[in-house]
Amino acid sequence: MSMGRKIIAVDFDGTLCINPVEVKVDDKHIFNKETDSEMLAMDIVTFLQKWGMWQDVQIFTGGKCYTDDRGKVAIRNEKHPEKYLVGPTERDCNGGIIWKEFSNPERLLDMTFEGPLSLLLRHHEYEVDTGKVSEEVRRILLPETSEVADEVTDYVSTLLDGQIGWDPTEYDSYEEWLELNEFDELLVKYGLWYELGFSWSLTAYRRKWRN
């Protein structure tokens, strides 16, 4: 069965638009490091810029590192991202610190982060400077009319009815639900899923598609 989602936006006249943009999760895409890495990295950058979280982030994929440089994208060769993915885990019998690398050895995608992205992924809290979000997101977060805000809330409630369920103890706001699930689906499009590592990192693995 084909699954997908709809992306919402607020038009320039202040009315709510619901655009049926389907993300096919049954395409069973097999991630190719040679051809997909750059597109994946730039999709993540676009996503983070859109939601005002493109800061204090490093994206490792395809032997390169993509990071923010005063809001822009800086790219460098990085064949050994594992040096950024090592941290203390426990102590040995003598009280010494045991250091461990937390990363998929296949090196599909790794990320390190601080700031708003860390807050979102670790604590499911979405707090950003609204001056840094895209115009589309700003109009969702700060609608010019109460009617638009009500329409967005009603849309999310309708979308979730009988499906995943929107637990307010897990998601503080409808925009956080939209944001967090958008990141998950971005990786699904590339046939990946992620696992959090340390408080400042994640690593990705291939999805195991069912026949």
Description:
- The chain is α+β, with helices and mostly antiparallel strands and 211 residues long.
- Helices cover 31% and strands 24% of the residues.
- It is built from five helices and ten strands; from the N terminus they run ββαββββββααααββ.
- It has helices spanning 33-50, 115-123, 135-141, 146-160, 174-189, and strands at 7-10, 16-19, 57-61, 64-69, 72-77, 86-91, 97-101, 110-113, 192-196, 201-206.
- The strands form three sheets. Strands 5-4-3-8-10-9 form a six-stranded antiparallel beta sheet. It has a two-stranded antiparallel ribbon with strand order 1-2. A two-stranded antiparallel sheet has the order 6-7.
- α1 runs antiparallel to α5 (174-189).
**How helix-rich are the residues, as a percent range?**
25-40%
Q: Uncertain regions: pLDDT < 50 for 5+ in a row?
A: 1-26
**Structural class computed from helices and strand pairing:** alpha+beta
The N- to C-terminal Cα distance equals: 12 Å
> Quick one: overall form?
globular
Q: How many strands in all?
A: 10
Biggest sheet layout: 6 strands, antiparallel
Strand content: 15-25%
Spatial order of strands in the largest sheet: 5-4-3-8-10-9
Number of helices: 5
- Radius of gyration (CA) equals 19 Å
Global mean pLDDT: 76
